[in-house]
Amino acid sequence: MPSADAQHLLRTTQHALDDINDFSAHHLRLMLADSPLQPNVSQQVISDGTSIHSDDKDVALVVRLIPVETGATPRSHLQPYSPTLDVYYSPNQIPSQSSTGSSLATFLAQELHNIFAEEQAQLAHVLSATSGAHAAKVKTLSPEMSAELQRQSTRALKYAPTYHLTFSLFSPSYAPSQWDIETALQTYMSPLLDAFSAISNFTVDTQVQLYATFAPSVRQPEYDESTKAWTLRKEDLSGFVNAAEWPLSPSIGEGPTVNFILYVPDHSQSPLLVRENAGNSWLIPQWGGVHILNLEGEANTPPALTEEMLAPAMHTFSNQLISLFGLPQSPASLPLRISTLERVRAASLIFSASSTLGALAQVYQKLPSIPVPDNVAHSTQETIVHLQQACDYLRDGRFPSALEHARAAEVEAEKAFFERSMVGQVYFPDEHKVAVYLPLLGPVAVPLVMAALKELKSALKRG
Question: Where are the domains of the chain?
Answer without folding.
Answer: 3-115, 122-154, 158-324, 334-426, 429-463
